[in-house]
Design brief:
The complex is a heterotetramer of chains A (about 450), B (about 650), C (about 100) and D (about 260).
Chain A: H1 2-6, H2 33-65, H3 81-91, H4 102-119, E1 128-131, E2 134-137, H5 146-167, H6 171-202, H7 207-213, H8 223-236, H9 248-251, H10 261-286, H11 306-329, H12 335-366, H13 371-390
Chain B: H1 3-12, E1 19-20, H2 28-45, H3 53-76, E2 85-95, E3 98-106, H4 108-131, H5 138-157, H6 161-179, H7 186-217, H8 222-229, H9 234-252, H10 259-263, H11 269-278, H12 283-290, H13 292-297, H14 299-322, H15 326-347, H16 352-379, H17 397-411, H18 417-431, H19 434-463, H20 480-502, H21 506-515, H22 528-552, H23 565-571, H24 576-621, H25 629-652
Parallel strand pairs in B: 1-2
Antiparallel strand pairs in B: 2-3
Helix pairs in contact in B: 1-8, 2-3, 2-5, 3-4, 3-5, 4-5, 4-11, 4-16, 4-20, 5-6, 6-7, 7-9, 9-12, 9-14, 11-15, 11-16, 12-15, 14-15, 14-19, 14-23, 15-16, 15-18, 15-19, 16-17, 16-18, 16-20, 16-21, 17-18, 17-19, 17-20, 18-19, 18-20, 19-22
Chain C: H1 4-23, H2 27-52, H3 56-86
Helix pairs in contact in C: 1-2, 2-3
Chain lengths: ~450, ~650, ~100, ~260
Amino acid sequence: MNQLISTSPLSLPSRAPVAATEATVSTFGHDPWWLILGKVVAVFVFLVLITLFLIWAERRIVARMQQRLGPNRTGPFGLGQGLADGIKLALKEEIIPAMADKPVYFIAPIVATIPAFLAFAVIPVGGVVSIFGHVTALQVTDLPVAVLFILACSSFGVYGIVLGGWASGSTYPLLGALRSAAQVISYEVSLALALVPIFLYAGSLSTSEIVAAQNRFWFVFLVPSFVIYMVSAVGETNRAPFDLPEAEGELVGGFHTEYSSLKFALFFLAEYINMTTVSAVATTLFLGGWHAPFLLSRVPVLNSGWFGLVWFTLKLLTVLFGFIWLRGTLPRLRYDQFMRLGWKLLIPASLVWLLLVAAMRTLVVEDVNLRRNLVPVGIVFVVLLLLVSFWPSSKKPDRDGEGEDGHPEIAVGNRAFPVPVLPGEQTDPTLAPREVTRA
Amino acid sequence: MSVTASSALLVQGAGPQYVNATGLFTLSWVLIALPLLSAAVLLLTGRRANAWGHLLGCASVLCSFVLGLAMLFAMLGRSGPDRLIDQHLFSWIPAGSFQVEAGLLLDPLSMTFVLLITGVGGMIHIYSIGYMAHDPERRRFFGELNLFVAAMLLLVLGDSFLTLYVGWEGVGLASYLLIGFWSYKPTAATAAKKAFLVNRVGDVGLSLAIMLMFATFGTTSFAGVFSGADRMMAATATGIGLLLLLGACGKSAQFPLQSWLLDAMEGPTPVSALIHAATMVTAGVYLIARSNPIFDVSPNARLGVTIVGAVTLLFGATIGCAYDDIKKVLASSTMSQVGYMILAVGIGPGVYALGIVQLVCHGFFKATMFLGAGSVMHATKDNVNMRHYGGLRRLMPITFLTFTAGYLAIIGFPFFSGFYSKDKIIEAAFDKGGTSGLVLGSAALLGAGVTAYYMTRLMAMTFFGRPRWEEGVTPNESPRSMTMPMIVLGIGAVFAGALLTFVGDGLAGFLTPSLGPAEKGSPPVISASGQTLLILAVATVGAVIAYLQFGRRSVPDTARQDVPVVVTAARQALYGDAVNEAVFMRPGQYTTRALVFFDNFGVDGAVRGLAALVGGSSGRLRRVQTGFVRSYALLMFGGAALVVIGLTLAYAI
Amino acid sequence: MSPAYYLYLSAILFTVGAAGFLLRRNAVVVFMCVELMLNAVNLTLVTFARINGTLDGQIIAFFVMVVAAAEVVVGLAIIVTIFRTRQSASVDDVNLLKY
Amino acid sequence: MSGLAHLGTASYALQQTTKGEAVIFWLLAPIAVLAAMAMVLSRRAVHSALLLAVVMLCLATFYAAQDAPFLAFVQVIVYTGAIMMLFLFVLMLVGVSSADSLVETLRGQRAAAILGGLGFAVLLIALIGSAVSSMTVRGLTAANAGGNVQGIARLLFTRYVFAFEATSALLITAALGAMVLTHKELLVPKATQRQLAARRFADGDPSPLPGPGVYADHDAVDTPALLPDGSVAPGSVAPVLESMSAARFPRPDVLPLAEGDPQP
């Protein structure tokens, strides 16, 4: 057990010796102040730029998907649209509802934005490089528990949404906030559970070490984890099709209905940065981080230093494209469907998958002699278990809410509880159990 | 007395020497096991056994009887001392120094009982097939009968007082169950309860006697107790003897614990025949006979036994004259006859065997008469009032004949069994000599006359005279399953006495290894033939008076009320219940009331005062319970602060 | 600075939480005060872990967090249920269990 | 924040912490105390929750500074992220309508609480002072040598494994308990849309309730609509908002209710 945690012998046949370009936790903590400041500013700028780019990209891509052109007037290809929108938002009139709880109303967008930026601090965007003679990694910092840091930031970021919704003193935002709170609490569980297999394989919670562990193989081969993570991430960032806290059709604008001007812009920013962050995390944890893809990784130059930045950005944009693609494709889920998906599918599935991975890791690490026999048996067992667990029920859940669980409903007569007629009981035809006619 | 000392006594003891069971005798446990198994089957299988349950019940008892017969012949093949056969079964209570072994003792005495129980019992079982034919619970009846037989066999076969006690309680239980067999009748349920309770009084005596034995000898086995008996103090022996007598009184319905037997007639008639005539009520006789080494040490205890016997035989006979209920007449007759047995075993060495002879003969003739009474009731729709009988002899010839055999036997008609058993006891009482002999003999003689009177009365009212049947009653003879046992037992009633007296050494000779040789006491006050003539004369007088009163005159349908005080008293069972109530129940009730008063005002007063104190103070303290969580929290907080203060002080010091 | 200052801080926080428990009537706020006290104790545990040089204190603090989570879940459920039936979240309104 | 985790691992004198840690402590400790006190005194439960979150974040920082990075983030994720979020959730369910009254209803409770609190704090500090006077700080450098997470994991799955399993059972039980407690039994079948529509017509009010706000300069949701005679249209403002507005501040711009109108 200890061995499993403290040392990290990978199950992969061979792990290449950590190259000089790979960072570990110990790489950090030695930078001069100006370098740290430079990194922080760079990350900030990077995030703001990518947000501006995303606003444009989303509109353009969705427009393409809808056989439209999208914004194409401001700047080349309409690239300036994001900036223009930002300036417009900042210059708009600021309206504070009379019912608002002012202090909370003020800090809510800030609370939403700051963690979104913070989380990016532990994302490695490139390998170890030399800047003005200082050897440093292209990452603001790293922690032994960096992934927990990211989770903490994401769980704190939702405060902005919840508080914003509550502080507006209005009904729709409140409902949006409530939805958001429930949504985050629910989906954070499966999100975190999906990451645990990574920790088991990487033997570390540090992002840079996780990236280093993907030197040869990306963790995307943990497909269930990846899928669960991506689905949960969409839920966590309130993006379509899980954008229930700001569902336009029902809640006008959701939690930010009453917000305007710069505060609204902050929420807007936070959402896009969150999207960027979860994509960056997906890149880091599943897609090999800044490592070059496949065969290109064999070329040392392409797989280190500043080149990593390029690969990272490309991967990041790919994942972000996925988000946009989802929005352009899928309709919004109903709230109960959304909750059912989270609690009844994602969490059990991630638990089962985690169990499977842990078992495999134990077998490998403990070097069980019988593993050749045990592993197939175990796999067959787990597959059977999964089949049994998730075999689609022949009973269709009742869509219009007329019956609970699809059971035939029993009409309630003058009795307090809907119980079947007992033997020998007077059966008045008007009180007799009958199936409620389905519409 | 310490255990070691008692074991020393055991070693040096000069009591009866038992030989270990061999051959056939190792199967003695089967005697008990058969009816017990049958009882278990019948009681546990439920209605499924309805069809064949009675057959199983009979078969088990008859098998035991056959086995007992085989053992009898095996025993007869042995010489005298070798006939005391002990079989060790298992270590029953191995608790430190308290060791109780479970074992069975098969000697002439218990052998006699085994054959009586299984033989008479078997007949009554067969009789019950017919008698209970229409009862839906017949299977349960047979199960309980079998349970009784098993318990009774354990009682007589056990080789220690503790084993005997188990059987003793077992027959008490079975008796309770069977008296209350028709428990839907309130009278039956009450009678069962009464029998049980009165028996408990006797059982307390027996259990105390056993405890006393254990305290004295360190053991309860017959061998251990009897071998040490001759060295114990007379006072202890008197104590044990009187306690045993108390037990015997309870079980055998002897004065003053006689009152339950009359009520016990609420049970089915076969029960009355088996338990309350032939077997269980004789358990007291067995107990005293078996414990003869103890009574040998204490003449006082023995005197007590004779007094109880004499009083009861007159008592029962007197009651028997007054009742119109045929079963109760027979029951009081039983009481009286058992009184003769107790008298016999009380008189002492050499006469024990006479008591047993009377016991066996009584078993036959009383069972005959009870079964006859059952047959009569069967024919008259369960009417028990003799005033509603009359003239049955022609319609029920077999019943009449067998009943007559029993009648002649009980009144001591020459050459019938009672002639050999009862008359010998009267003679032995006279032969005891001295004032006591004269008194006891006179009492027994008087009893014989009264017996003849009430039995003649019964015969006359039942079988002679004009019919006084109630409407719709058309008596006819009972089915063969009932008459056959009556015939068999009737034959026994006629010939048992002669057989047991004249075949070989007679029963008395057979019993010598168990009870000692029959001694010839001082020369008789009156010559034997003179005594016999005297007894016959007295009995004839009694019979003639009864005949004049009831045979010649017509019997009124209802009893006259303008009768002498004695008759009224006899009709009330000589106020046995009233005496019980006055002597035991009322004082107890008053004691209880006094205790309740003391409890209410003394004990409860103190308790209530305390409670009032607590209640009053808590009534004020409960105001703290405001229901406000925050108030409680404040208290907790204060408590925590106190803890911190304590810790701080602890650090400071 | 000595690590003991953390202990003083935690003592103050604990006291504030306890006082809050005594002062506030809103059940949810009362509950928050309980959480504050638990947190203060956690700080003590972590500090003592450091002082003693073993990780056991941190483990206990971890367990406190887990148990607190369970406690909050059930406690808030009870508050919601009470609110649903009595339309009040005041701890003083739930005072039927008294003399 | 990122550098905090390393503060603890840096070497320091046995009794003394690093200067950086001291700075953080003296910066955050007053904030924590003030936030805690403000939490107790705040009239609105949501503010209390936020202030408690602030305290928890401060404590998380302290954990990080004290060589407990794992616990620091667990604190943020579990306490701030989940538990406090649950609090907010419940607050929005049950306590949005008005601010709490701070008037004390139990006689002597407030004085006793304040006095008791002060005394308790003094006692506790005195106790700690006397207890730590002879204390030696060993530090976690050795214990954390293999990594804090690994160290905790090792203890958790060896010495404390039974406690760990017990808490897992406790959590499951708590989850089920919460579900059972808040579960509402559906005693009668849920009304279908058809039935709802029928009921609405039967009630004689098939149209939607009047919308809020008919003033040109006020179209906020908490401004009631007016009927043709100038009186307030009942039901035009959500009851929640009505109680909120009534509780928070008087609205001079809302017309006074006419006599006999249903009170909000």
